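Researcher: Dear colleague, please comment on this protein.
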Amino acid sequence: MFKKIVNIVLWCIAIVMIAVSLGFSVNESRKIVCQDVKVDITDSAKVRFLRCNDIENWVKNSHREIFGRQLNSLNIRKIEEGLQKLGPIEDVSVYTNLFNNGVKNTGALVVRIKQREPVFRVMGAGRSFYVDKFGKYINWSPHFTPRVVIVGGVFSNDYAAKRLLPLIFFINEDPFWSAQIDQLYVGGNGEISMVPRVGDQVILFGVPEDYRIKFRNLKALYTEGFKSGGWSRYSTINIKFLNQIVCTKK
C-alpha cells in the first residue's frame, strides 16, 4: 500500500512539473517576435514563375510592420489574401513557427506556395501572358519560359477559357499532337489556324468544335496519306468540315 501511495505522489509531482514547464514554454513562445520570412515554393522544380526572394521581398515591402512584433499578433489572413492576388500563385498557406539557430529560438513567418501551371501562352496584339488549367491569367515572367502552345490573334477571356482551353488540353495530353502542334492563331471569326512543327503548311482547323473527330481525320492523313512523305507539297490542309479534308498545293 505504501509503495502504491508513493507511486501516486510521484506521478502527481511529474504531472505538475510538466504542466508548469508547458506553461512556461507557452508564455516564452508568446514573447518571441517575428524576425524572418521563410518561403517554400513546393513545385519550384517544375514551374518557376516565382523565386523565394520574390516572395520575401513582397512580404518585406508590403508588411514590414510584422518584424519585431510578437508571432501571435500577426495578421496571417491579411498576408494570405494579399499573396493570393498575385497572378502566378494558385494556392498559399501562411503561418508562424519557431526556429532554433543553435543559441535560442527565433520567430519567423512561413509562406508555402503552389504556383499556377501554364497550359498555353497568348502572344500578339501587345499581349503576352499564360493561361492555366482554370482559365486564369499568369503574367509573363523573365525568369521562366515554359514550352507550351503559343496562341495568337484577338479573342475574349471567355473564348480562351471555354473554347481554347479544352482544345489545347486535348493537344497537350496526346503524345502525337503535343509533339506536332506548335502554334495556333484565332481569326476574327473565331476560327483557328494551326502551325505544325513538321512541314510549313497551315492547318485550317475552323471553330474549336468536334476537335476529336477533326484530329482523328488529320492523324489518318499524316500516318496513311503522308506515310511516304509529301506533306511539303501542300500550303494548306483544310479540316474545317467533318469527314472532309482538302489539301491545297503550293
Helices lie at 2-31, 52-62, 76-84, 157-173, 175-180, 211-225. The radius of gyration is 29 Å. Confidence is low (pLDDT under 50) at residues 14-27. Residues 213 and 226 are 19 Å apart (CA to CA).
